[in-house]
Design a protein that fits this description.
Layout: E1 2-7, E2 12-15, E3 18-19, H1 24-34, E4 38-42, H2 43-48, E5 59-63, E6 75-77, H3 80-87, E7 95-99, H4 101-107, E8 113-119, E9 127-128, E10 139-143, E11 147-149, E12 152-160
Parallel strand pairs: 1-7, 1-8, 4-5, 4-7, 5-6
Antiparallel strand pairs: 2-3, 2-9, 8-12, 10-12, 11-12
Length: about 160
């Protein structure tokens, strides 16, 4: 299973249910990497998308504790056990965990690859991703050359476990 995330240099991922920064090359990478695949997210992540709609051309799986929650064009599960059962239907390499914080924390140990867009800046944030550099089981396998978008410097990193 894979993780895909954009973090700042404190491993922050968002504030007020919004991304910290929108970088077109990061959005393109996300779209190209996850199209045709399975994306796993929490309810708040889904609701942060335009019009709160699932991502096109992907199997969207949403985990929420709300037993009445439903959304068109997505599979809604209500527990870790229900999620695990649903994920067994798909190839592990085709599954991408896309957030938010509690979903990442719940599933990080079950993943073996992480695609991290690392933004070299500290933003004001209220949600964080587990710092893979502090987890000995995770190794930085690849890092792109420095990329820039206006005055933002960022790197595409791949971690493996």
């Amino acid at each position: 299973m894979n993780l895909i995330v954009a973090v700042d240099n404190n491993w922050a991922i968002g504030k007020g249910n919004k991304l910290l920064v929108s970088i077109p090359d990061d959005m393109k990478f996300f779209r190209e990497t996850t199209t045709g695949k399975v994306v796993v997210m929490g309810r708040k992540t889904l609701e942060s998308f335009p019009n709160g709609k699932p991502l096109k051309n992907r199997v969207n799986i949403v985990l929420t504790r709300d037993p009445k929650y439903t959304v068109k064009d997505a599979i809604v599960v209500h527990s870790k056990e229900e999620l695990d059962k649903e994920l067994k239907k798909y190839k592990s390499d085709d599954i991408f965990v896309i957030g938010g914080e509690s979903i990442y924390r719940m599933l990080v140990d079950e993943c073996n690859r992480a695609f991290v867009t690392y933004v070299d800046y500290s933003y004001d944030a209220d949600t964080y991703f587990p710092n893979l550099d502090d987890k000995p089981e995770w190794k930085l396998a690849e890092e792109s050359e420095e990329q820039t978008y206006y005055d933002i410097e960022f790197y595409f990193r791949t971690y493996i476990k």
